[in-house]
Amino acid sequence: MAFEIGQTILRRNVHRNRRIGAVETARMLSDDERGVLTWMAPGSQVMRRCTLAGEPTRKMPLSLRTAVATMLVPDVWRDTGVLIFTPPDAGHSVWWFFDETGFLGWYVNLEAPARRWFGGLDTTDHALDIWVEPDRTWAWKDEDEFNERIDHPLYWTAEEAAAIRAEGERAIALVEAGRHPFDGWLTDFRPDPQWEPSRLPPHWDLPDCGSIGA
What we know:
Layout: E1 8-14, E2 20-32, E3 35-40, E4 45-51, H1 62-65, E5 70-76, E6 81-86, E7 92-99, E8 102-111, E9 115-117, E10 120-123, E11 125-132, E12 138-141, H2 143-148, H3 158-177
Parallel strand pairs: 1-10
Antiparallel strand pairs: 1-2, 2-3, 2-4, 3-6, 4-5, 6-7, 7-8, 8-11, 9-10, 11-12
């Protein structure tokens, strides 16, 4: 069962203990054998984890983040517009960032292969990312955050960390070779001006559902 074009879907970061870490909303553009393609407009509704005092946990040291009570808090996507392509069974997604002048670059988000359910895609973020300029020069991002989590029971072992980095290196090889999806595909994209920012559907916080139709 494919998602419907124009449908609002959720993209959720679900930790190994099945706790939802973050939620994003996006407009479905295509869903086929290549993967799922969505558009997240500025102002789209999201949920972010914060302390009870409202402080975002995103950049907190791990020792502090795991020692305080937190909750999901409503927010909106404040960055530029972004296309998100999630290939099937891949350990990453690719994000195209745009502003009013056009394409700004790619972002390779390393993550567990996405799990479908009727509301969208659930994955587990792997912290390590890659930023790719339009000329395909690239740099690792958040290596300190990634390394801090190695051998923590909520995250990944050293062996798993090596596999995560290897997934990133495979993506880098595609970047350097100018191969799909880093071959100019979608870099001239422009959203329909009538598209509104995405809104949270009522089922946004259902438990990790595993597979579509659950």
